[in-house]
Amino acid sequence: MIVTAVAGSGSTKFQSSVSVSDLSPEEIQNFAPRSTAEIFRNIPGIRSESSGGENNANIQVRGIPVTTGGAKFIQLQEDGLPVLSFGDITFGNADNFLRADTTIRRIEAIRGGSASTFASNAPGAVINFISKTGETEGGSIGVTRGLDYDSTRVDFEFGGPINDDWLFHIGGFYRVGEGARDTGYTAENGGQIKANITRLFENGYARVYFKHLNDRTVPYLPAPVAIVNGKAEPIPGFDFRKETLSSPFLLSNTRVDSNGTLAFTDIKDGVRAISTSVGAEFEFDLADGWTISNKMRYADNSGGFAGSFTAGILNAADVAADNGGDGLVYLNGPNAGQAITNPSALNGNGLIIDNLLFDVKVNDLSQFVNDFKLTKSFDTGGGSLDISAGYYKSIQQVETEWSFNFFLQEALGENAALISVVDSTAPAGQQTLTVGGVRAFGIFDPFFDLSFDRDAVYGALVWSNDVVTFDGSLRYEDMSGTGVSNLAAPMGTMLGGFVPTDIDVNGDGFVSPAETGIGVVDRNNLFTVDYNVNFVSYSFGTNYLVSDNLALFARYSRGGVANGDRLLLGGNGFNPAGGLIDDGIGIDIVKQAEAGVKYRSRDEVVPGNLSVFLTGFYADVEESNFEVTSGLAIDRTSEAYGIELETAYSNGGFSLVGGLTWTDAEITADNVAPANVGNTPRRQADLTYQITPSYTFGGHSLGANIVGTTSSYAQDNNDLELAGFAQINLFLNVELTEGLVASVNVNNVNNAFGLTESEEGSLPANGIIRARPINGRTTSVSLRYAF
After folding, report:
1. Which tens digits make up the pLDDT trace of 235-285?
2. What's the number of domains the chain is made of?
3. Domain extent for 145
4. For site-directed labelling of 181, which of 8, 265, 457, 593 has its Cα 20 to 30 A away?
């Protein structure tokens, strides 16, 4: 494998000091992934919380913690350019706009400090989806159908040389169904198409490409989970492995938009991702060892996020009185209009969900990005020297508007009805205190219209001979954030420019308690944002070939992340002019060291081919952030020590690939919650692992993919533990005839109870927490014809 993580000419994985892994399309298929996030779990060093659905993943690398959501310290790329400039835009994760399909040639992941200078906002890792471009003529078409869940998907791709000078490739997918869990409606509906065309020249190539994504997927957010003797179990009526808060009786939401007018959201849209991108790239070898290259893309990104979040798990018997009423009535569903006469026995659990509906309009996440690079190669006599320099430019828009409404809903995992609170003593026509199941409208309504303009210059030196490689790279980043928002964020607070307004939402001539004090954006008093941050990243590494089969490597790096929209959400500070009170909160620095050994054997130590990469790593991490669901600011540092193992073995038809990561992490300073100093960061397990044994025979193959984790603390207070779990996936591929393959994939065949996050840091008295579980067992069958 050739890697180009350090700017310069490519070197083999064994010769490079860069930690890089790649996944082939065949490996991805065998993992039986139900989402893009599940693919990431099979990259050594990467911990991907794939419990959020097709996207909405939280991704961590090598002890760099996940304190909120998204992938703050990781850059997700398509064909060498970022999907978004930030990995943790609130309700706009980069993976929302990224899909894996059969147009992918491979996925390449660069882990550790070398990523600091390779890309912006990527001190932890870069994960790059690399597309097919038509070097080999051929294509495929495949259909996948869920056997025990509702999903049908069609993938296609075709490409090849047009003539000696031109190549092309086109492909995409379309998928429709409920998804891996029951929703009661078509919750996944959409797809994408990608195309590129390449002109070959004697000294290089030029390429243009296009992508259109229009997809709707359901977000899986924290749901009620019982903890019994430290283990997760479903509550009566709600099996979190296969059921969700989503319901056919909650498909529309009435909200107050940023202009103060009533608007309506189709909840079936879920996480709506619409992206149309066009790009171009070229690379040419010039005279005297010079190479010039450039990559450019403009992506018009928009969509939305509509998902149900468990804000509270309420005793049904208390709900009426707590909301000023004396009774409960089914608003809809099969019992619509009937009174709930025994709330304590409701659905066998006596509970009602306080459903906080996240309704976010992603008006504009458009991005322009360009990366220009020059490389010069020299023969120094005793080796070769590659010098690279480049200029990177990006402009990222962030225009979103939020509206959060509270619904009262049955604690039922399938076809849950909404609940009305009534007051039988009120005058006729005014006895229903909720409106369409809503107990409170517009409790939090941020509005953002921001632009982030980034410039970076970088350079690298790579010297190598047959034995040793030295590399060093430097990157200078400068980013300005400008725009307006209705949020003003004094240090440690979450204040907004809202005008509490009474609105007759349902137009019945009566303003009920739910319709009072609705937050309306005050457009006459928007807060101006105007700040600038800059920082330097660097990375130095070496690789020494002890023999043809043994190598040693080491690296030290410093990288940074420039913070974006989350700065406005609270826990950080702006001055009246829109600048930062402390420039330090606009940048989070990550310092990393790594060293290790690489070994390979070809029928020497054992029969067959064996490779083992063992890396020891250290990370010192600053983080300023804000968590929406808890309303808590984060301002702290942590450090982590660990060991990462990546191995592969093959002998005849048998192969085994795997990895594990052991991490010892600790919070070393916390300006918001000093009591947490010395604790382990939330959701940081001591050990995560993945292993895939397989056997190929006569065009057929079978195997298993095992992904697991030991226990971790739910929150930084280190009280409640999330139990460890192992998820086993099985695959069988049968070649029916040349080119035609039938496959069966079982995801989580052991139906493991696995929790990736919890809102609670301690176990409540009722033993029920709000947590995000992995999917239960799902089985799919597919038929694919390659030609």
Report:
1. 999 999 999 999 999 999 999 888 888 999 999 999 999 999 999 999 999
2. 1
3. 2-220+270-306+361-402+447-496+521-786
4. 265
